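Here is the promised in-class demo. Please do not try to memorize the tokens; focus on the logic of going from shape to residues.
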């Protein structure tokens, strides 16, 4: 069984159909490119939902992974390992965090933050037991666990999975007045994406986050920013909060924290919030393991030392300019920040997915989202000529 049709048939037959991938079977990746089993090359404009910001199979992350894999992979947190302290130190220096809790997937980081702020609410803020509320935004995407989908407003993500976890209050994204009105004495936190990625790269109005930050401070509400997708250079800054001139109390990162090699996520916070977790109250067998730490350390190092964030900012501006220059009567909107971009098509265009298939035929991989939007998020190592080539393919496809 080696041709792509057989592989696809087997996946369809034996796998749960919880995804509907484009029918391209990839076998190799390097930098911004991936190759399918027939040897065809594609420019990856999804970057595994922003997990491979550093480009596919970055040689320095690979070397760190191989070296650590040959030494020690997993100790569990029952014992200490000689990589975790370095990861803490390097992450703290980079982000200014005082306390860090390592996990694996993004959803686990979100769950961890929810647990921590609830406990903080009871023990520090004085919220009556069982009454803690967290404000979330409509059209959010924070992962797939039961508590997280309990406050999703996407029927596909939520329907049929009840009973749901209570304690969440939903407000429209970008509406500071609605946010203010949702705060009460039991509000312990707000959980927000700086830019809503899965919703189609939705950028909030200028000033929204400044006001949210003020309201959180005034009302002793912990501001949690989910930077699992926007963080680590994706928007042209280390963290997307920098565009807003604010600082979150709790920041969630994941995805590119490992450059796509391994699931690594982290909750970054001040001492007060993560300080409420005591031994035995939270954990994960794999969280903070030496292999994950070594990979994450290398992933952060190349991100900063190789100028990827600055390149992402420059190439993002250039890419957006290119996209905005495309003349097509089916384009409704082009938006983005850094290399987190979207082209929204008019509903009459018949859906974004068919265009993703045409782009694939032209050698560019992108992902449709919410029917009419094509998301574009290439690795941060993309060059000017590669952007030119990508814009050409997109122009050809939308013409
Ligand atoms: C903003 C945001 N939060 C959380 C997650 C969940 O991360 P994971 O799929 O690693 O659980 C995602 C994944 O797309 C995301 O975009």
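The designed amino acids, position by position:
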């Amino acid at each position: 069984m080696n041709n792509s049709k057989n592989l696809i048939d087997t996946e369809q037959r034996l796998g749960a159909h919880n995804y509907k991938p484009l029918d391209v079977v990839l076998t190799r990746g390097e930098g911004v490119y991936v190759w399918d089993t027939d040897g065809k090359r594609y420019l990856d404009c999804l970057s595994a939902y922003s997990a491979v910001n550093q480009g596919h199979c970055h040689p320095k992350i690979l070397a760190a992974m191989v070296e650590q894999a040959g030494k020690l992979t997993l100790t569990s947190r029952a014992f200490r390992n000689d990589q975790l302290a370095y990861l803490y130190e390097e992450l703290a220096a980079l982000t200014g965090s005082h306390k860090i809790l390592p996990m694996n997937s993004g959803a686990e980081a979100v769950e961890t933050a929810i647990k921590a702020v609830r406990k903080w609410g009871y023990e520090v803020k004085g919220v009556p037991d069982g009454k803690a509320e967290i404000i979330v935004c409509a059209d959010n995407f924070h992962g797939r666990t039961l508590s997280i989908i309990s406050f999703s407003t996407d029927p596909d993500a939520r329907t049929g999975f009840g009973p749901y976890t209570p304690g969440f209050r939903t407000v429209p994204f970008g509406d500071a007045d609605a946010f203010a009105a949702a705060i009460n004495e039991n509000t312990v936190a707000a959980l927000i994406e700086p830019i809503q990625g899965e919703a189609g790269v939705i950028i909030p109005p200028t000033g929204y986050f400044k006001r949210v930050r003020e309201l959180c401070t005034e009302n002793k509400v912990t501001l949690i920013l989910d930077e699992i997708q926007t963080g680590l250079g994706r928007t042209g800054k280390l963290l997307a909060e920098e565009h807003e001139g604010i600082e979150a109390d709790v920041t969630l990162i994941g995805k590119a924290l490992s450059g796509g090699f391994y699931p690594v996520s982290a909750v970054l916070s001040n001492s007060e919030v993560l300080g409420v977790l005591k031994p035995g109250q939270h954990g994960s067998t794999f969280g903070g393991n030496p292999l994950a730490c070594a990979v994450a350390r290398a992933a952060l190092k190349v991100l900063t030392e190789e100028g990827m964030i600055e390149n992402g900012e420059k190439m993002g501006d250039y890419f957006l300019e290119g996209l905005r220059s495309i003349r097509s009567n089916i384009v409704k909107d082009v938006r983005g920040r850094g290399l987190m971009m979207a082209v929204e098509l008019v509903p009459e265009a018949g859906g974004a997915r068919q265009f993703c298939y045409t782009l694939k035929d032209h050698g560019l991989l992108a992902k449709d989202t919410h029917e009419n939007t094509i998301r574009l998020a290439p690795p941060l190592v993309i060059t000017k000529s590669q952007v030119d080539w990508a814009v050409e393919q997109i122009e050809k496809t939308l013409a």
